[in-house]
Write a structure and sequence with these properties.
single chain, alpha+beta, four-stranded antiparallel beta sheet
Length: 268
């Protein structure tokens, strides 16, 4: 599932291609036909991300809500706009290009009040200027759940996924199995303060890079990482390999149906 930085990039791309202009909307697949008819011809006013949720605003207070889920994907392209290929749930097209949405978990129109309901069930997003880390701490600080589990709970912190949670916990030397209530507010503040810049770099580059300058392939004289997620990381998908910092074998175990990666020495 795409992590929050990807959704912020999608919001920016919607504004770049369609912002301030009328768009044509259709649902070639047919599953969003009624919604597409309501959007067709309207001006795209704004687009923003709330964690892993994309909200696109159109004139007339129409709000398009998209959650990609595991299988959802956006494809942007230029002009001339080609005929749709495959199961395109929603196509937006304008004078500068098009955007095709396939396989999302959610593609729906929201009333303004429904947007508030959506926002109220999400934790703070480290990439948003209006995010309050104390809001997350109020839940983390009294929870018996592991911090690794809490960081994946979108009602606690909105945006991070499996990669960012593993990497930020490594960077901060936190055992992922630490209960939230044993973490301490200072360590939580350090995690939050690290997450924001890490994810902002993901927005800028379009990939997740979490290693510090002294641990890059160039600095260490090692081969670059080869993985379909791209990016240089410390522990994610590196189970059985030596830690880049201490050389101890990186471990992994399944927690809440997701693989959790950590270094037993650096995070001991």
């Amino acid at each position: 599932m795409p992590e929050g930085h990807t959704i912020h990039r999608l919001a920016a791309e919607h504004l770049r291609v369609f912002g301030g202009r009328g768009v044509r909307a259709e649902s070639p697949q047919g599953r969003f036909e009624a919604g597409a008819r309501r959007l067709d011809g309207r001006v795209l006013v704004d687009a923003e991300a709330f964690g892993k949720h994309l909200v696109v605003r159109f004139e007339g207070e129409l709000l398009l809500h998209v959650h990609l889920g595991i299988y959802g994907k956006y494809v942007f392209g230029g002009v001339p706009v080609p005929s749709p290929v495959g199961a395109v749930r929603l196509r937006l097209a304008g004078e500068s290009g098009f955007a095709d949405l396939r396989g999302p978990n959610a593609c729906e129109l929201l009333e303004p009040g429904e947007l508030k309901v959506l926002r109220d069930r999400l934790g703070p997003d480290p990439l948003r200027a209006d995010a309050d880390p104390d809001e997350a701490w109020r839940r983390i600080g009294r929870s018996r759940s592991m911090i690794a589990t809490l960081l994946m709970d979108q009602s606690v912190v909105a945006g991070p996924g499996n990669i960012y949670r593993a990497e930020v916990l490594f960077r901060q030397g936190v055992d992922p199995r630490t209960p939230g209530r044993e973490l301490g507010v200072e360590r939580w503040s350090a995690i939050w303060d690290d997450l924001g810049p890490l994810m902002a770099e993901g927005v800028r580059s379009g990939r997740i890079d979490t290693v510090r300058p002294e641990h890059t392939p160039e600095a260490m004289g090692r081969p670059p990482r080869v993985d379909d997620h791209g990016g240089e990381v410390y522990v994610y998908r590196r189970a059985g390999l030596p830690c880049l910092v201490c050389s101890v074998e990186v471990r992994a175990e399944v927690v809440a149906a997701r693989n959790l990666f950590w270094c037993p020495r650096c995070q001991g």
